[in-house]
Amino acid sequence: MPTPDLAAAQGRHLDALARAYAKILTAEGYDGVLLYSGHAHRHFGDDQTASFAAFGHFLHWVPMAGLEHGWLLIRPGARPTLYFHAPADFWHLTPRLPEEAWVEAFEVELRSETAPPSLPAGRFAILGEVDAELASSLGAEANPEALTRALNELRVHKSDYEVACLREANRRALTGHRAAREVFLAGGAELDCQLAYLGAARVRESELPYQNIVGLNAHGGVLHYQHYTIDAPARRRSLLLDGGHRYRGYCADITRTWPGPDADPAFAPLVEGVTTLQQRLIAALRPGVSYVELHERMHAGLGELLAEHGLVRCSPGAAVATGITRAFCPHGLGHLLGLQVHDVAGRVAADGSPLPPPAGHPALRLTRELEAGMVVTMEPGLYIIPMLLERFRDTHDIDWHRVEGLADHGGVRIEDNVLVTVHGPDNLTLHDAE
Ligand code: GLY
Ligand code: MN
Ligand code: MN
C-alpha cells in the first residue's frame, strides 16, 4: 500500500500525464491511443512461458508490472479507460485491481477476453506488442514512429512520484546487496549470494528488472555473466554484484564490488579508486552537461587509475588515445533509468534527431545533454578481459605481471542511480545505509 504522500504524488503524476498525452495526441493528429500491456511468451513447442514485464508506456499509467492482456485507451478530454483482464479461471488466481487511489482516475472495464476492445470512430494508434494486421483490423495504426518518439520523450523527465518509486526500488535493492555481501564473506557460492539477495529484498527472480549478475572472482569480468555457480571457489578474491529491484514498475540498477579474504592486496585500492572516480563523476551531474563528455572524463580517470596502480606503463593520456582504457572498460558510463532498466530515448535529442554514440564507444546508451528530471546510472568499471587486452600484448604499455595478478578478480564496477536536478545530483542509491 503506498503512503498517502505517494498516493497523492501518483495522482499528480496521472493528471500531468493526461495533459501531456492530450497535447501530444492533438499535435500528432490522433483522437486517441490504445496501449497494450502485453503478454508472456511460450517457449517453442512448450506450454511454459518466459517471465513477463508489461510495456513501459502502459506502466507509465498503470503501476502493475505483471499485468498481462491489459488495454488502456487514452483520449484527450476523456477519462482513460482501463480494460482489465480478469477471467474466471480455476488454474490461476484471477488478477485483481489493488484498493488504491489511482484506480479512481480510470474507467475500469473488467473483461475475460484478451482481444483488444473495439475503438470509437476516429484516428487511433495502438502502441505495444501488436502487429500491423491486428491494428488495421481495428482501423488503427500500429506503433507509429512520431507518436512513439513523443511519448518516449515524456518518460525522460521523472515526476516526483516516479522519483519516489525509483528511490524505493533502490532502498529494496540495497537490502539485497547487503545480505549477499555477508553471504559472500561467509564463504557462499554465487547461488547462495543470489538467494540471500532475493530473500532479503523480498523478491522473486522473475520480477527483477534484469537477471542479477553475481560474479565471483574472474566471473566479475564477464560483463553480462549469466550463471550462478553452486560451489564456492577455493579462493574468494572478489564479488561483483549487479542487482536490481522494481517498485511499482520503476527499476533500480545497482552494482557493488567487494574484495574477498583471498584478494590480492592491489585489488581493494583499485575498488576504492573506481569508487572515488564514480563519486567525482556524479558530483559533475547537472543540467546542460553532456553525458558523452562525462563518459570521456571516465576514460581520462581510468587512464589515471591504470597508471597510478601500475597496470600500464604509458601516460594516462596515451592509455586513452591508444584504446587501452576501452579494453579495460568496454561499456558506457551509464544510461537513462526508469520503467525499463535501459530506459527509452537515451540516443535521441528532445526534438527527435538521432544522437548516435561517438566513434569507438558503440556501447554508450546515453548521448544526450543532461536535463533536470532525468535519472541516470553512473557505472564506471575496470575489468581484466583477456580477449580485449590481448591486442596490446606487443606494445609494452601494459604491465602484464600486475594485470595477470588481478585476472582472477574479474573486475570492478560501482553503479549508482542519480537524479539530475538544478541544484546538482541527488543520489537515489543510499550510501549511508550500506
Ligand atoms: N544491469 C545492467 C546495466 O548495468 O546496465
Ligand atoms: Mn546499468
Ligand atoms: Mn547494472
Structural description of this entry:
The protein has 2 domains: 4-154, Creatine Amidinohydrolase, Chain A, domain 1; 160-427, Creatinase/methionine aminopeptidase superfamily (Creatine Amidinohydrolase), CATH 3.90.230. By secondary structure, it is of the alpha+beta class. It has helices at residues 4-28, 56-59, 132-137, 145-154, 160-185, 190-201, 267-283, 291-308, 316-321, 324-328, 386-389, 400-406; strands at residues 32-36, 71-74, 81-85, 107-111, 124-127, 140-142, 213-216, 238-247, 250-259, 375-378, 381-383, 411-413, 416-421, 424-427. It is 32% helix and 16% strand. A 6-stranded mixed β-sheet has the order 4-3-2-1-5-6. Strands 7-8-9 form a 3-stranded antiparallel β-sheet. It is globular, with a radius of gyration of 23 Å. The chain binds glycine and manganese (II) ion (2 copies). One manganese (II) ion binds next to β9. Glycine (GLY) binds at residues 210, 242, 253, 341, 379, 415.
